[in-house]
TrEMBL record:
<protein>
    <recommendedName>
        <fullName>Non-homologous end joining protein Ku</fullName>
    </recommendedName>
</protein>
<feature type="domain" description="Ku">
    <location>
        <begin position="52"/>
        <end position="181"/>
    </location>
</feature>
<keyword id="KW-0238">DNA-binding</keyword>
<comment type="subunit">
    <text>Homodimer. Interacts with LigD.</text>
</comment>
<keyword id="KW-0234">DNA repair</keyword>
<comment type="similarity">
    <text>Belongs to the prokaryotic Ku family.</text>
</comment>
<keyword id="KW-0227">DNA damage</keyword>
<comment type="function">
    <text>With LigD forms a non-homologous end joining (NHEJ) DNA repair enzyme, which repairs dsDNA breaks with reduced fidelity. Binds linear dsDNA with 5'- and 3'- overhangs but not closed circular dsDNA nor ssDNA. Recruits and stimulates the ligase activity of LigD.</text>
</comment>
<keyword id="KW-0233">DNA recombination</keyword>
<dbReference type="Pfam" id="PF02735">
    <property type="entry name" value="Ku"/>
</dbReference>
<dbReference type="InterPro" id="IPR006164">
    <property type="entry name" value="DNA_bd_Ku70/Ku80"/>
</dbReference>
<dbReference type="InterPro" id="IPR016194">
    <property type="entry name" value="SPOC-like_C_dom_sf"/>
</dbReference>
<dbReference type="InterPro" id="IPR009187">
    <property type="entry name" value="Prok_Ku"/>
</dbReference>
Length: 271
């Protein structure tokens, strides 16, 4: 597993050398843009929007558009100076309960691993202390020139760091159109059936039972086309009409998801 960040966790006056490893991976199948005539990949070049010339990497600088068409240039040194030494360590600011953080704030997960043998004792101590407290540490971290809020928690036999969105990065749900038109009360019978449907669909969360059906189908399609197997043409699906009667739709859903009883056959006693 490749290290993507190296530094330390500051726990009070204790510094624990650590490394971060990406905990998740994107398994999306990447499709290339091809020229239809010769089936070759399309190349993209960086060009200047004003003069139209291709621009080499060494001639590209960063800047901010403070008004339409007007930019201020920012050098790499100026940006680096803003970070000072904060990109070298993660300082735990507070400890909170995991239940107090809404999932909307979670961004990306990283495994935390010890960086040296000398820090193993402190690493183990912090992991055990967080686990026993049933709380998570809140900290700041800079990854790839961007500061993130982060949650540090115990995870299996190690620790996990999850970057969080800052509050001003999470949009207000009040901005969603139509929410003000929701009815304050719902029919009791419809509510009872809706709750019954939820109960019937309630189960223990087992991650292994979920899969990316579209990706599996796309992989199969690509394998068949590479092997020269003719692709089966599926019939067009019949358009589904919206159900106007909400109560009827709920009742039909409950009936469809109702667990089937196991049929047992009784053996006759032989005399």
């Amino acid at each position: 597993m490749r290290t993507m960040w190296k530094g330390s966790i500051q726990f009070g006056l204790v510094y624990i050398p650590i490394k971060l490893y990406t905990a998740t991976e994107d398994k999306d199948i990447r499709l290339r843009m091809l020229h239809k005539e010769c089936m070759s990949p399309i190349n993209y070049t960086r060009t200047c929007s004003k003069c139209g010339k291709a621009v080499a990497n060494e001639d590209i600088i960063k800047g901010y558009e403070y008004t339409p068409g007007q930019f201020v240039a920012l050098s790499e040194k100026e940006l680096d100076d803003l970070q000072e030494d904060v990109d070298k360590h993660i300082e735990i600011i507070n400890f909170v309960k995991l239940s107090e953080i809404d999932p909307i704030y979670y961004e990306k997960s990283y495994f935390i691993g010890p960086d040296s043998g000398n820090g193993l004792r402190a690493f183990s101590l912090l992991k055990q202390a967080i686990q026993d407290s049933e709380k998570i540490g809140i900290a700041n971290i800079i990854i790839r020139s961007k500061q993130h809020l982060a949650a540090i928690r115990s995870f299996e036999n190690g620790m996990l760091l999850e970057t969080l969105y800052y509050p001003d990065e999470v949009r207000k749900i009040q901005e969603v159109p139509g929410l003000g038109d929701l009815t304050a009360e719902n029919a009791q019978k419809e509510m009872d059936i809706a709750n019954q449907l939820i109960n019937q669909l309630t189960t223990e969360f087992k991650p292994d039972q979920y899969k990316d059906d579209y990706r599996l189908k796309l992989e199969k399609l690509i394998e068949e086309k590479v092997s020269g197997i003719p692709v089966e043409q599926k019939k067009d699906k019949v358009a589904q009409h919206n159900v106007v009667d909400l109560l009827s739709a709920l009742e039909a859903s409950v009936k469809e998801t109702k667990p089937k009883r196991k049929t047992t056959t009784r053996r006759r006693k032989t005399v």
